[in-house]
Design a protein that fits this description.
single chain; 260 residues; alpha/beta; Ubiquitin-like (UB roll); Rossmann fold; nine-stranded mixed beta sheet; three-stranded mixed beta sheet; 12 strands; elongated
Amino acid sequence: MVRDYKPTKKTASKKKTISKINLALRASIWLSLGVSGSLILLCAVAYITNSQLFQVRSIEVKGGAHVEKNEVLTLLDIEEGNNILGWDMDAARQRLLKHPWVKDVAISRNFVPATVSVRIQEHKPTATLVLKDKPYLISEEGLVFASAPEDHYGLMIQASDYAPLKNGDDLDGILKEAIHAVTVVEAKGLKVKDLIIEPGGMMNIRLDKGVTLVILGEMTPVKVEMALKTLREIKPECGTIMDLTCEDKIVLRNRGYHGS
């Protein structure tokens, strides 16, 4: 038998051809969908950015007595007519917290309609500190938070001769003790005229009757009771110093009373 070894032509399978066509069609469809989606997203972003729907209609500021509204608006960095979606609310809050009078701040916003509401909680000055001949305001927590105006607030604390450390942490601690001491003393019915912080942190609490209570560290109710008992029994004269630096006794001494 004679075999024919002549090479034959191979023809592409019809099934494979259809598969390739379908693959190309799917790729084209997905590419078209991707381009269309990108265009739709781009148009949506452009619409949202320029839409009046998200333009701020009102900004409400409450709670500020010493912080002017214009200051708040500047620190918020947003105005009526701005797009609210591009505004960083957290960054605005951090800027407001750096204002010396701001103790805390709450910010809320609505998107439709676009509005911003700000509530300021200010420090409450309870004392004025004179340090190196410069006046500063002291908060309820005993913290220096701002330079004092000409008119002082509350208790007068003199610390002209006190030299705080570089970081000022020691002064913060002493001021907290001073505010606490005055609170304890006045809770017992005694009226404090002013307070002097000496080098080393010793405090002279001057009463309106001309008697000075001297303490170092925390003022306790026990010490105040000792002072009250001494005032009732001895009735010390104006200019008397009652040294309460010891826990279990009072040392009395007298010197000329300064001030009226």
